Amino acid sequence: MIALGDKPLIILQDVNLQVSAGESVAIVGASGSGKSTLLGLLAGLDVPTSGQVFLDSEPIFLLDEDQRASLRSRLLGFMFQSFQLLPALTAMENVMLPIELSGQDSAQQLAQALLERVGLGARFDHYPRQLSGGEQQRVAIARAFVTQPKLLFADEPTGNLDSETGKQIIELMFELNKEKGTTLILVTHDEALSNRCDRKIKMVGGRIID
After folding, report:
1. Nearest to residue 153, comparing CAs of 7, 9, 13, 26?
2. CB 3.0 to 4.6 Å from 77: which of 55, 112, 120, 149, for a disulfide?
3. Cβ-contact 120, 138 below 8 angstroms
């Protein structure tokens, strides 16, 4: 809920959701239904007016922002519609970054293995501007999985891609998700993508209705 003048604006209400380890869940609904807001709350990127989210049994809103950031770096991976690659870093450096931030060793070795796995073995030293949309999303997939997260959040991961490239990204994402045993929660308008998930959750007006 946020305040709009003197009138509160309720974005999400009475949302109760449980996702099991290893499950893939698609959150669907019209624009403005609260899908991305829910994703942000589940990841601890936003803070609710009331309510609680448990990640790996941890009540995340009892933690401060630094503690939530530490939890995210340890447990979560992210994919976004706009790729969110750093333009001044190469593909290799973009994938290495979350490993380095988490303090793990062997960043270059792990990043190289993931980039090769997503078909970008010849693109290590290329910058985002030198890559196609599909290639940038492949870098983003490698970056999301390189820390071996327990849970992957994806917000419209095929939204900026053409139909054929989107299909390739879907296949790659689910292949890696199965290989790594990751739990997947995604927001999408892409019916083909939502149909690949174990479960669909439909949102209308800030509520889960299905």
Report:
1. 26
2. 149
3. yes
- What residues have CB less than 8 Å from 144, skipping those under 6 apart? 77, 78, 79, 152, 154
Q: How far apart are CA 146 and CA 189, in angstroms?
A: 26
Contacts of 186 (CB under 8 A, 6+ apart): 24, 25, 26, 27, 153, 154, 155, 157, 193, 194, 197
Distance CA 123, CA 119 (A): 9
- Tell me the residue length of the chain: 210
φ, ψ at 117 (rounded to 5°): -65, -35
User: Token digits for 186?
Assistant: 């995604």
Please state, in angstroms and rounded to a whole number, the distance separating the CA atoms of residues 73 and 193.
26
Q: How many other CB atoms are found less than 10 A from the CB of residue 92? A: 21
Per-residue pLDDT 10s for the chain (210 aa) are: 444 455 667 788 889 999 999 999 999 998 888 998 999 999 999 888 889 999 988 899 999 999 998 899 889 999 888 889 999 999 999 999 988 877 777 888 999 999 999 999 999 999 999 999 999 999 999 999 998 899 999 999 888 888 899 889 899 999 999 999 999 999 998 888 899 999 999 999 999 987
Say if pTM beats, i.e. exceeds, 0.90: no
